Amino acid sequence: MNEQLSPIFYCVVALAAILSFAASESRRQAVLLIASLAAGVIFYPLWLAVLFVVALAAVFPLARLFETRRFSAAVLWISVLAMTATLFAARSEVFAQFWSASTQKIHRIGTNVSPAALIGTSYFVLRALALWFDAAKGKSGTVALPRVLTYLFFFPTFVSGPIDRYARFQQDVATSRPVNFNTVDEALWRGVLGLFKKVVLADTLIELCLPPGAEFLPRLNAMSTGQTWLAFYAYAARIYLDFSGYSDVAIAVAMLLGVRVPENFNLPYLARNITDFWKRWHISLSEWLRDYVFLPLGVNFSRGIFKGKSLAAGCAAALIAFALCGLWHGLALNFLIWGLMHGVWVFAHKLYSDTGKRSFPGWLTWSRGNPAATALAIALTFHGVAFTWIWFSAPDVHAAVAMISKMLTVSK
Amino acid sequence: MPEPEAIKPTIERPFWLSVLRWMVWLAMLVMVIAFASRSHGGAFIYQNF
Fold first, then answer.
1. A147, A170 in Cβ contact below 8 A?
2. In Å, how far is A357's CA from the nearest CA of chain B?
């Protein structure tokens, strides 16, 4: 279900924006929470109920416990592992069958509710884990039930981010940020631009891309080499336009409600190298992984099993962070390969950069200032990233290998 | 000391540029409405993750 493309969604946005504008600072929290739950009830009621129970029974009580900082580290890690395991279990085929059977029973008793499962779950889990980690470090500020629920269920960013941090989000909600003409002007532009990217550009590119799932291989077999290369470029353009379009709309809607959520994209295909790419692509996810996986693991490894071997510690931390990034997108081998490719590439770039600074600093300075070298670096980074999208878009490893083979053989 | 916001220079947009900007916005909106009725438009890719 695409709530961002539904007129009802924009009715909820308009009503929430007016009420949020009119409400006192103390009541804005309530307005945003009620609007978020109302949007959930309209678009994904059953799944919202499941996540609401999880928020009440686990996320909030544990965040309160971690806020006190009187807990053993084991409790935090068991909670994090349990939450992560629940996310992966919810993605399994067994759960899909159970959910389908359960919702069919509800349909039989006469209700007309969407059976959509897992809507927003991956992002819900990332927000919950960020809250726990921040609370445990004393960085979250006051943990209160209405605040936690508003943060977890804030409807503009609920389905696919950007992933905000609890303390920063609360600062925006608590601080009076008047929605003036400039804000509305910026939000209207940003929102329509986002919809234009998705509905007009990205959806037009679907025609050139390979379809997902079981139709991928039959269509690939019917394509020529040229058409396969076209599909390769079309998917790279489509995934950027689709996701940055979604993020533009989410940021614009949040802006109308007085919340400045973080940016998610900054012209990623103009990145000069893979490290630069991850500072420009899905920024809120890459920062989440950096802050809560890569840096803590790197520090632990360099003090523990890789003591005195900072390079090995960094390599292991990068590989684990990117492997988790891949598996977060889907519990499948092709997503794991996609993540590991990025992990290896980021580490290789770090090695190149460090060695360059030590051994040939003149070359690095020259290449950074040279327009031709910059253009070549951008083109190489883009093609490398687009190559990894093959593993991301294909339904399995066999299909990804078949696409690469097709691109490398000449056929009409 | 003035607030940072107060000393930030404001760039006034010429009237013709504002008109052009909103015409582009309107054109994009019309295309969004026209294209939204197509049957093959899919869900957002990241909605599945």
1. yes
2. 37
Whether residue A209 contacts residue A238, with contact meaning beta carbons closer than 8 Å, is answered with yes
Q: Do A328 and B49 touch (CB under 8 A)?
A: yes
Contacts of A246 in chain B (CB under 8 A): 44, 46-47
What is the value of pTM for the model shown?
Answer: 0.90
Closest Cβ–Cβ partner in B31, B44, B46 for A196? B31
Are the CB atoms for B36 and A201 separated by under 8 Å?
A: no
Amino acid letter at A323? A
Mapped onto helix, strand or coil, the DSSP state of residue B44 is coil
Q: Which of B17, B43, B11 is nearest to A5 (CA)?
A: B43
Nearest Cα to A271, choosing from A379, A349, A386, A369? Answer: A379
Eight-state DSSP code of residue A280:
T
| Separation of alpha carbons A281 and A150, rounded Å | 26
- Answer yes or no: are the C-beta atoms of A63 and A148 closer than 8 Å: yes
What pLDDT is stored for residue B39 in this prediction?
59
Among residues A251, A240, A46, A40, the alpha carbon closest in space to that of A150 is found at A40
**Which residues have CB under 8 Å from A35's CB, separation 6+?**
A12, A15, A16, A19, A20, A155, A257
Give the mean model confidence (pLDDT) for residues B18-33. Answer: 94
Shortest alpha-carbon distance between residue B31 and chain A (Å):
7
> What are the angstrom distances between the C-alpha of A288 and each of A123, A202, A209?
11, 27, 30
Of A16-30, A348-362, A373-387, B1-15, highest mean pLDDT:
A373-387
Q: Give ipTM to 2 decimals.
A: 0.83
Whether the Cβ atoms of residue A47 and residue A118 lie closer than 8 Å to each other? yes
Can you give the pLDDT at residue A366?
83
Identify the DSSP state of A262.
P
A192–B35 CB contact, under 8 Å = no
Instruction: Give the residue on A whose Cα is nearest the Cα of B23.
Output: A189
State which residue of chain B sits closest to A203, comparing Cα positions.
Answer: B41
Confidence at A176, pLDDT banded by 50, 70, 90: low
Contacts of A328 in chain B (CB under 8 A): 49
